[in-house]
Design goal:
The chain has about 270 residues and is α/β, with parallel strands linked by helices. It has twelve helices and seven strands. It folds into two domains: about 160 residues, 3-Layer(aba) Sandwich (Rossmann fold); about 110 residues, Orthogonal Bundle (DNA polymerase, domain 1). The chain is about 45% helix and about 15% strand. The chain has a seven-stranded mixed β-sheet with strand order 3-2-1-4-5-7-6, sandwiched between helices. Helix 6 packs across helix 9. The chain is globular and about 60 Å long.
Length: about 270
């Protein structure tokens, strides 16, 4: 099996115990710290474990380099782990003031600060609307451009304050369940890490990698990701390549959400290769 987003190895630990000595588990991740944690967690598994620092967009190349032609199972959990959200070097959270970076893969060149401080107002608004699905994107972009005229926006806290000010309604308290900057931060993270383009490459590679009756399972966390997975699975079913095992996505129940609030938006879709 290939765990395309191995993270700290939580999913792979459970699957790896079932693979047995004859099984091989390949784990991919762009985050060096996550790979090291996964290495420690999976050390006692009975199966063979191969960990590779790579984006899942290159899954076909990485598997081929290992001399493997087909796999039985591809898993991708597109969510962020808690350690990444609190890592000040990555700068993903507005809960703590961090450098405005957002590169999960340190080899990437463009940071969130580069986009915020160098993009023109129209491009910034389009990005926030496209990837953050925020209908106030033009107003947010206008406030960002005005603020950066005084000094560059360098931290997550500074950006969060600007977005909150852009969305504030005089005389009314903000009552939304999510922070007003959530969608803008999502948009920047997606853009910096090329998340949707990488997901498309993973989905394109899966049918060729899976052997007959093999499974592909994707856990997504927002409608842009889930929409890509849903359309891809349906298209491959129409071509006769897949059989959908989840007509509707599997979502967490109340108990799981209570135990892990970040799971509340998770959607799992599974397809099987014909």
């Amino acid at each position: 099996m290939v765990d395309a987003t191995i993270g700290h190895g939580g999913h792979s630990f459970l699957f790896g115990r079932r693979l047995g000595p004859a099984g091989t588990l390949i784990g991919l991740d762009v985050d060096s710290k996550s790979l090291e944690r996964a290495r420690q967690r999976l050390a006692g598994l009975p199966c063979k474990v191969i960990l590779v620092k790579s984006n899942f967009a290159q899954i076909a190349a990485r598997v081929a380099e290992l001399g493997i032609r087909e796999v039985d199972f591809i898993l991708a959990d597109l969510g962020l782990c808690s350690a990444q959200l609190t890592d000040s070097e990555i700068g993903l959270s507005f809960r703590t003031d961090m450098p405005l970076d957002m590169r999960i893969d340190e080899s990437l060149e463009t940071t969130a600060a580069d986009i915020i401080n160098e993009s023109d107002e129209g491009s910034l608004a389009d990005l926030i609307y496209r990837y953050g699905q925020d209908r106030a994107s033009r107003r947010i972009a206008r406030y960002i451009v005005r603020r950066r005229e005084r000094a560059p926006i360098a931290t997550t806290g500074q950006l969060a304050q600007v977005v909150a000010a852009a969305l504030a309604t005089p005389g009314k308290k903000h009552r939304s369940r999510i922070h007003p900057a959530t969608r803008t931060f999502q948009a920047l993270r997606i853009a910096v890490n090329h998340e949707l383009e990488n997901l498309e490459q993973l989905l394109d590679a899966a049918p060729q990698l899976l052997r007959k009756d093999g499974y592909v399972a994707i856990i997504s966390y927002h409608s842009l990701e889930d929409g890509l997975v849903k359309r891809d699975f349906k298209a491959n079913q129409a071509r006769g390549l897949y059989r959908l095992l989840t007509k509707k996505p599997i979502v967490p129940g109340p108990e799981e959400i209570a135990a892990n609030r970040r799971a509340r938006s998770a959607k799992l879709r599974i397809a099987q290769k014909n």
